[in-house]
């Protein structure tokens, strides 16, 4: 396949956006919706909240930690077969969870096997999507990322309805069948060759990215935010019930938050491409709003206040996700964005493994969710402080992607004066 000068910014790329929509819907969308089964699992296995929280924590941590394996495999064998294999494994994992007889079985099936399948499916899809777009990348990312929010909006009430009629085992069987649609998303991923792409053998894992100051800061920040970012989707339904809200109305709170998330992802994608503000500033602002929303959840004592905070959280979290996927190619360059996506997901696994069990443990120890939300908000706000150390947008330096484009057409890179506080760059 002849190498293209620039990303096509359209064409088959719009079908890759569809694949990205499916990948978001059937990975994080499902993960965020399974929280409505939390109390069912606690009752079925006579377990504590912390023990059941480990199921989602293992799923999230495996999905993120194994993401470099997915991106490295897609670099060598192509994204299409890797993503389709991931869809099959994740479906088998959820199917096995429906037949589990102990929490250990849930840890292995819904935790490890499903997480591994999602690792093979999500990061290669989103990395491939980044390569298809340049000028309209944020819009494309926003469209793909709405899958996460729309699924999180529609699925919780449906899962609650299914659980009332089919019990949690039947609900997981239906979810397993739904996850098989990841195979369709994988089939839409057509290989794309761009000038400046490194040889395949030199790009395995690409751990040298951590030596780049911009990516290292970005990875550290995402690791911190992952410890609190998913707290509402694990505990918001149960928190609503603890306030005396009936189950379907509590599930609606999660759904409304997800709808705000989906709309915000799309609007942020449209706005970020206009460059009204530097993406790094948007990243810090939206992430800080996520942290503030988490801090105020414990003060909500009415259904209306809980709905307001859920919408605020969803809108800010969705906007952050779109901007983050748009910032990453600018930090590392388009030729390394696939592996960078996998490594970034791996760094998030640290916080993802810590956050849900810690919040569940705090709930068990204190008897309510106050400490869980406060600690989650503190982690997210600490990530905002880390993001402030990202390379300055006003330094006059070309981004990694711009440097690649200049090199591809034979122009030397312009000089890049760095301020004194940046000279410790590795």
Automatic annotation (TrEMBL):
Which CDD domains does this one have? Answer: MFS_MCT11_13
Main location (coarse class): membrane
What is the membrane topology here? Multi-pass membrane protein
Task: Supply the alphabetized keyword list.
Answer: Membrane, Transmembrane, Transmembrane helix
Query: Residue limits of the Major facilitator superfamily (MFS) profile domain?
Result: 13-395
**Bilayer-crossing regions:** 12-31, 82-100, 106-127, 139-159, 171-189, 210-230, 250-268, 280-300, 306-328, 340-359, 371-390
Question: Sorted alphabetically, which SUPFAM superfamilies does this protein's record hold?
Answer: MFS general substrate transporter
Q: Does the keyword Membrane apply?
A: yes
Q: Does the keyword Calcium apply?
A: no
GO cellular component terms attached to this protein's record: membrane
Which Pfam family, any one, appears in the UniProt record? MFS_1
Recorded GO MF terms: monocarboxylic acid transmembrane transporter activity
**Start and end residues of each stretch annotated as Disordered:** 399-426
Q: Where in the cell is it found?
A: Membrane
Its recorded name reads Monocarboxylate transporter 11-like
Q: What is the lineage of its organism?
A: Eukaryota, Metazoa, Chordata, Craniata, Vertebrata
By which gene is this protein encoded?
Answer: LOC106546983
């Amino acid at each position: 396949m002849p190498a293209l000068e620039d990303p096509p910014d359209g064409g088959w790329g719009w079908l890759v956006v569809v694949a990205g929509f499916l990948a978001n819907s059937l990975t994080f969308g499902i993960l965020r919706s399974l929280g409505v089964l939390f109390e069912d699992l606690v009752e079925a296995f006579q377990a504590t909240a912390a023990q059941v929280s480990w199921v989602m924590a293992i799923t999230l941590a495996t999905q993120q930690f194994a993401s470099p394996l997915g991106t490295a495999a897609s670099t060598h064998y192509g994204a299409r077969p890797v993503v389709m294999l991931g869809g099959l494994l994740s479906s088998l994992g959820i199917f096995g969870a429906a037949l589990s007889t102990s929490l250990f079985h849930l840890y292995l099936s819904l935790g490890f096997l499903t997480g591994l399948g999602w690792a093979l499916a999500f990061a290669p899809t989103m990395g491939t999507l980044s390569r298809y777009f340049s000028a309209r990348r944020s819009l494309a990312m926003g469209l793909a990322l709405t899958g996460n929010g729309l699924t999180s909006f529609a699925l919780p009430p449906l899962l609650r309805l299914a659980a009332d009629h089919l019990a949690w085992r039947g609900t997981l069987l239906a979810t397993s069948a739904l996850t098989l649609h990841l195979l369709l998303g994988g089939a839409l991923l057509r290989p794309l060759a761009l000038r400046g792409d490194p040889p395949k053998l030199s790009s395995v894992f690409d751990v040298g990215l951590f030596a780049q100051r911009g990516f290292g800061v970005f990875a550290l920040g995402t690791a911190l935010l992952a410890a609190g970012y998913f707290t509402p989707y694990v505990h918001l339904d149960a928190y609503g019930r603890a306030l005396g809200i009936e189950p379907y109305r509590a599930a609606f709170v999660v759904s409304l938050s997800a709808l705000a998330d989906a709309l915000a992802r799309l609007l942020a994608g449209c706005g970020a491409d206009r460059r009204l503000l530097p993406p790094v500033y948007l990243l810090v602002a939206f992430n800080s709003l996520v942290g503030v929303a988490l801090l105020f959840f414990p003060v909500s004592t009415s259904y209306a206040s809980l709905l307001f905070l859920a919408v605020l959280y969803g809108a800010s979290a969705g906007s952050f996700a779109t901007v983050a996927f748009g910032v990453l190619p600018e930090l590392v360059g388009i030729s390394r964005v696939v592996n960078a996506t996998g490594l970034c997901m791996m760094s998030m696994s640290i916080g993802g493994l810590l956050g849900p069990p810690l919040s569940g443990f705090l709930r068990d120890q204190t008897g309510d969710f106050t400490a869980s939300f406060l600690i989650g908000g503190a982690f997210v706000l600490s990530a905002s402080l880390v993001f402030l150390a990202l390379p300055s947008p006003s330094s006059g330096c070309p981004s990694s992607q711009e440097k690649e484009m200049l090199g591809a057409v034979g122009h030397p890179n312009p000089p890049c004066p760095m301020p004194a506080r940046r000279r410790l760059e590795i």
